[in-house]
Amino acid sequence: MSTFHLSRRSVLAGTAAAAAVVSLPAIQGRAQAASPAAGGYRWRNVVQGGTGFVTGVLFHPSVRGLAYARTDIGGAYRWDDGTDRWIPLTDHIGWDDWNLLGVEAMAVDPAHPNRLYLALGTYAQSWAGNGAVLRSEDRGATWKRTDLTVKLGGNEDGRGCGERLLVDPRDSDTLWLGTRHDGLLKSTDRGATWKAVSFPATPSATGQGVTLLVAAGRTVYAGWGDSDGTAGKPTLYRTSDGTTWEAVPKQPAGTAAKVPIRAAYDRHTRELYVTYANAPGPNGQSDGSVHKLRTTDGKWTEVTPVKPGGATSDGGTDSFGYGGCAVDARHPGTVVVSTNNRWALVDTLYRTTDGGRTWKSLKDKAVLDVSETPYLKWGGDKPKFGWWIQALAVDPYDSQHVVYGTGATLYGTRDLKRWAPQIRGLEEASIRQLISPPAGEAHLISGSGDIGVMYHERLTASPSRGMASNPVFGTATGLALAAAEPSYVVRAGWGDNGNGAYSNDGGKTWAPFTSQPPMAKSAPGPIATNADGSVLLWSFGAANPGYRSADDGATWSEVASFPKGAVPVADPADATRFYAFDTTTGTLHASTDSGKTFSARATGLNSGDTEFQLTAAPGRSGDLWLSLKWNGLYRSTDGGATFTKVGSCWASYTLGFGKAAEGASYPAVYLVGSTENITAVYRSDDEAKTWTRINDDQHQWGWIGAAVTGDPRIHGRVYIATNGRGVQYGEPS
C-alpha cells in the first residue's frame, strides 16, 4: 500500500456547531473497570477479498500445505490447507503497539516445523516505536516477544524485498536479522536476545541496509541495499562459518544490479538466483536484472529474461525492475521471477526450466478468475495480472502451485494457466469511513484507502459490484447518507475522472457530480449531506473554504464562514442544520440555514488536536458527541451551544451509534477509547453512564481510531474500521 502520511493511518476529523461558551466541569476521574460483555463477542472480518499489499509468502520446506504470508500494515497469516483460508496471527497486537502490525520479515525452521518467527515494525522513522521479534513454538497460535532496540520498516520502501530474518542452516538456535539502519543482528537463543555483529558494510541513515537473507547449503548470504552498484561497492555478502562475513567476489555491478531484491537457492544445481533493481521498490524502479551464482566455483551468469528499457508500441519506454524469485524444489533449474513497477506493459512472471537460458512469460496465456473478488476489475471489464509483484513462491510439494502477491491481493495457480486470488481470510484494507444504513439491502457501506467505496450486500462475500464506479476512486475521503432519506448517499475521493458522486439507490449505483469546486481534484476532503438529501457540503483541507451544492453537485457555491479544514456533520433530524468543529481554535460552528452560513457557538474546547471526531446521535436534533483524543469525550444536547464532559471515559478516539437495547429509549453507543487502563472497544446501553468492553485481548487490531458504528437494525452488532485489518464486525455470541 502506501507510506505513512494519512493514507495508511487515517484520521477522521470531527465537527460541531454555533454561539456560546463550552461547559467544562471538572474531570470526574477514571471510571471503574468496564465489565466484559456477557457471553462475549464473536469477531469476524467483513469480506472484501484482500485489498492490501502482500509483501511476502513463504512455504514451509518440510511440511506439505503449510505456508505463511506477511503484509505491510496488516500483520501475518498462516495458511490452513484444510479450509483453504488464511488464519490471522497478529490480531492480538493492541493500540499502544500499532507500529508492530507491519511485518518486516518472517522465518521458519526447516528442522522444527512448529517454529515460526516474525520481525515486526511498520516504520523506522523517529516518531515510531522500536521493532520486536515474535517467536512461536506452535505455528503462531501463541507467542513470546522480544522488544528490539532498533526500528524496522515493514511499510517503508523496500518492504517487498526478501526475508530479512533467517534461521541459521547450521544451528536452529541461531537466527539472523537484517535491519535497515543498524546493520546485522544475531541471536543464539532462538530469538530471545539479540546482539549486533560485525559486518563489512556500513549502514546509512537513509539507505536500505540488509535487503535479504538466504541460506545456500550451510552458507548464509545477505543482500545490501546501501551501495551504488558500482565496482568496489558490493551488494552481496556471505558467511560460511557464521562469524566472518565477506563480499561475494565478481558480483554484478551497475545500475541494473544496484539493489538485490530477492534470492532463492537451487539445492540440486547449487546455484543461487538473485533479482536486482535500481531501487528497493515497490515504487521507483526503472531498471533491473537477474543473475545466478554457481556456489561451487563462484561463477556468475546473467540470466535476465527481458532487459528493461525497450520501446513500447505507443512510443514509451518499458521500464521496470525485477522482484520476486522462487525455485522449484522438485525440478532442477526451474525458477520463477517477477518484474516489478512495469506500468507500460504490466508486470508479469517469467519461468525457466533450463536454468535461465530461456524464459516464458506466464502472463501471456494466463486466465484470471476474480469472480470471488470482483473489485479486482478496478471498475473495468477485466482484471490485470498485477503490480508491485515482489512476493513470490513455488510450493515445494507441487510444482504447478505458484502464488504471487500484488498491491491488492495474492494470486495462485495449480496449472500455471488459470489464476485466482488465493486470499480467503486475508483482509488488509485501511478503512476510513463506515455507514450502516437503517434500511435497504446492504447493512454496510465502507470507504477505504486505495480501493474507494464498497457496497456490502453481504458481509461474508466480497461485494458483487466491486469498487463503486462512475467514477472509481483510489482512496475515499468522504462518505455520508441522508438520515431521513437513507437511499441518498454521497461520496468523495481521489480519482482521475471526478472526485465526487451521489446515489439514489442506497449506494448500489452512482452518478458523478456534473461539476466540482476547483480544488476538488487536488484536495478532495470529507463530504456531508443534510437530513433530506437536498444539500451537500464539501470540505477541502485547511487551505481552502468549504463549498455547498443544492442540486446534486451540478453547481457549487463557496461558504466563506465554514471553518477551513473542518469536517461537515449534518443534523440527522433537522435538514436546515449543519455542524463543524474548528480544531485550530477549539470552536464549534453551526449553520441553521442549510449550510449557507456558519456562526460560532461553543468556544474554549481543546484546540490543535488533529485526531478528533464529531458525531450526531441518530433521530435527534442537536445531540452531538465530540471525541477529543487528548481531552476525552464531550456531549452537547443544545446544538453545540454548550458541551459537558462525559465522566465515564477518559479517552475517546471514535464513537458511533447502533440499535437501542430492548427496553432502552436511546441508541446503543459504541466507543473506541479508554474507560480504564487500556484502549478497547466498548458499548453503552445507557447513554454512556456505564460501559461494557466487547472486544478481548486476542482481538485488538492495533490502531482502530478511524471509525466505529453500530448497526441500526441489529442491537449489539458493531463495525470497526481498522488500519490494516479491514472492517471487523462483532456480534454477541
From TrEMBL:
PROSITE patterns: TAT
Signal peptide (UniProt feature, chain positions): 1-33
GO biological process per UniProt: polysaccharide catabolic process; xyloglucan metabolic process
Record bears the keyword Membrane: no
GO molecular function terms listed in the Swiss-Prot or TrEMBL record: hydrolase activity, acting on glycosyl bonds
Keyword terms, alphabetized: Carbohydrate metabolism, Glycosidase, Hydrolase, Polysaccharide degradation, Signal
Family: Belongs to the glycosyl hydrolase 74 family.
Protein name: 1,4-beta-glucanase
Species for this entry: Streptomyces violarus
Source taxonomy: Bacteria, Bacillati, Actinomycetota, Actinomycetes, Kitasatosporales
